[in-house]
Amino acid sequence: MANVAVIGSQWGDEGKGKVVDWLASRADIVVRFQGGHNAGHTLVVGNQTYKLSLVPSGVVRGKTSIIGNGVVVDPWALLGEIESLRKKGVDVAPGMLKVAENCALILPLHGRIDRAREEARGAAKLGTTGRGIGPAYEDKVARRAVRLCDLADRKALEEKLDHLLFHHNALLRGLGAEEVDRAELLAGLVEVAPRILPYADSVWRYLDGERRAGKRILFEGAQGIMLDVDHGTYPYVTSSNTVAGMAAVGSGLGPGAIDYVLGITKAYTTRVGSGPFPSEQDNEIGQILGERGREFGTVTGRKRRCGWFDAVIVRQSARVAGLDGIALTKLDVLDGLAEVKVCVGYTYEGRSYDYLPASMAAQAGVRPVYETFEGWRESTRGARSWADLPATAIKYIRRIEELIGVPVTLLSTSPERDDTILVHDPFAD
Ligand code: IMP
């Protein structure tokens, strides 16, 4: 019985929500293992649209949903999301949703620091979601984070706050900024504790037991591999590892628990926020892609930058994350274009590259080398079998597979869950 990890292979927003939802119907448990409420996953089920940030997408399908230890959790955001799901008729009771008791919390001060830092950076800003993700992970690694389990122990919580604020208030004082009010922070946490603690669980134990019992686990990644703190376009990245290995670390299972890694891949490229983007089309093409693809951030509403498919980046992602297959999404956005381009390599300072070099200067300076394809007039939207696709679109897909060295496992042809062509069942591996 295979367990599958689903991760984004570009800069996020590849359409993971729909694919995870599709796969979730065949899994027993869905696990988030990194990131926080910076993620935005949109699910369309019938005429209902769900926008999820923190709660695993499987919840809409009534699957047990897990927030693993690798996630940074804002308790207020989580409770808000649970409430908005309840209003849409999805009851997320404790037992249906389990949150790792050892996960680090995002506190109001983290959002404040995130936004203040971005403002101070001015034009050099990273373009974060402003949700406090980075500062929360910093506190976790610095061993001063408040973890979910701390909310159950007032004395431990107070000690943690002293330690945490000793650090942050010293910095804030130095910057001439307003210090964090300890009493206010404590009161907020004491108030939220009884509402969030019923969801706390020893997630690694639960998952170990379920895995031994032969249950199917779906690991739901957030963001994309190019936003990985190690392998992405540093420093224009998020603060967690987004590669498949994190599914094990961030949920408390060994690496052998992941049998198949599916990379969600958009048929073109988008990026939200700052940072290098070699195949960006800051022109009419980019505008067409953005409009047709409705490329606006789920979380922040920001307009996404758009460009041609970059095979170099997806090939690199496939290697560093160990992709077994990709789910290609939003092919229909390219319908009707006279020609379609794919970035197949870069040049930089007189040298050719078949990968994205690590230095910031090189990442900003590489120039794309394109291969041009004839477009297709026919609509691919809603296609449910390979035979419904025009030959030129199939040629485009085959070339992508060749360039990235990974097969297309699944093709998504509209946001509707049933508009999906399954080539290979990842759960069967
Ligand atoms: P942070 O994760 O809020 O710190 O933002 C760091 C970078 O990751 C920024 O460029 C964000 O736009 C990007 N980012 C974070 N979450 C997502 C996501 O879910 N989709 C796409 N980009 C994201």
Question: What does this 3D model show about the protein?
Answer:
The protein has 429 residues and is an alpha/beta fold. The protein folds into three domains: 4-100 and 200-257, 3-Layer(aba) Sandwich (Adenylosuccinate Synthetase, Chain A, domain 1), CATH 3.40.440; 108-196, Orthogonal Bundle (Adenylosuccinate Synthetase, subunit A, domain 2), CATH 1.10.300.10; 265-428, Adenylosuccinate Synthetase, Chain A, domain 3 (Alpha-Beta Complex), CATH 3.90.170. 32% of the residues lie in helices and 20% in strands. The protein contains twelve helices and 18 strands. Strands 7-6-5-2-8-1-9-13-17-18 form a ten-stranded mixed β-sheet, sandwiched between helices. Strands 12, 14, 15 and 16 form a four-stranded mixed β-sheet that branches. Strands 3-4 form a two-stranded antiparallel sheet. A hairpin with a 2-residue loop joins strand 3 and strand 4. Helix 3 crosses helix 4. Inosinic acid binds at residues 11-13, 38-40, 126-129, 131, 133-134, 222-223, 227, 236, 238-239, 272-273.
Provide a compact summary of the structure:
With 429 residues, this protein is an alpha/beta fold. It contains 12 helices and 18 strands.
